[in-house]
Amino acid sequence: AIFLIFGPFFTSFLYEIYRSIDLQEDVKPAHNWIAAGVISWIFLLVVILILLLSKLLTNPFNKLYQRLFINPKNNYENTLSHSGILPPFRFLPTLTPTRPSSTLIPTQSQLLTPSPIIYPELIGYWTLDNIDHKNQIYNSTTLKNDGVAFNITIVPGKIDQAVSFKGTNKSSVEIIDPSLRKVDNDFTISLWANRLNEGNTILAWMLNYDNGGFGIIAGAKGELYCRTKDGATGTYVDSYTDYQGGYLLAGNGWHNIAIVRKYNQCNIYIDGKDRTMTHGFHDNLGKYPNTFFYLGGGEPTGGLMFKGEIDNVRLYNYARTPEEIIQDMK
Questions:
Q1: Which residues pair with 270 in a beta bridge?
Q2: How many domains, the chain?
Q3: Would I find Membrane among this entry's keywords (predicted)?
Q4: pLDDT digits (tens, 9 = 90+) for 205-255
């Protein structure tokens, strides 16, 4: 707009100076304006082409940089089967659960899909203390990402109360609010967990059949996995801790687990310390148009259900720093 408005005037001014020093014979004013307009339009088109080229080339070069310099050894589909512990798996398409009737007034997030987030924030904070007689799970943020608990027990937790899961397909917490679709880039999820079952199990899960998402998985040796799904290729990608730490074994007490995804890299913090051993390339997170957020397992009809207790779950739409993770633990 600036070039269109001021370009002809500026070009005409230069031309008048050029003519005034007798370097060229007199030309009619109309010709001045035509020449000025043509030059301005050409200059404007050049600027637009430069902007378009920079926009088109930025993303591919950024991905190439990530693959060559950030994670040069992990540019492949990395599934839990690489560890020899847990084979890759796929759940059936998500089923819509029957939500218990409630006399609560519908929240704004239940009526309208919120506008996209344009600033970092805590989009989900489930203390798991506020559960009513209808098994309604309340979110402590202003977004009202409430959920529903099925076949759970309230027990003393790490901080006040906690939810105890039975390890069956019908024991889970489901947060079904659409505003959770805002997690489509960097994110942080943290929670306290006290595991009681052995084998492989899922603590939290937001993945569906076609779109990218994420999950927290504990392995048979107590190792932790950050699993995401590439929304472009449909492949699972994992980052995970070592197998010797025994970080989340059955009967090993409460531990704080935080997953931080930043710049296509996932880091796993156990009790405030980064224990990541292997990094995958976590790209193309989707917006989960049909996906709920589950605690205590993959989904109501899925496997690898969690038996134990979970407390104080936080979900951010940005990457928290190590200092902030420790602060959340307190």
A1: 257, 273
A2: 2
A3: yes
A4: 886 645 667 889 999 999 999 998 877 777 888 999 999 999 999 999 999
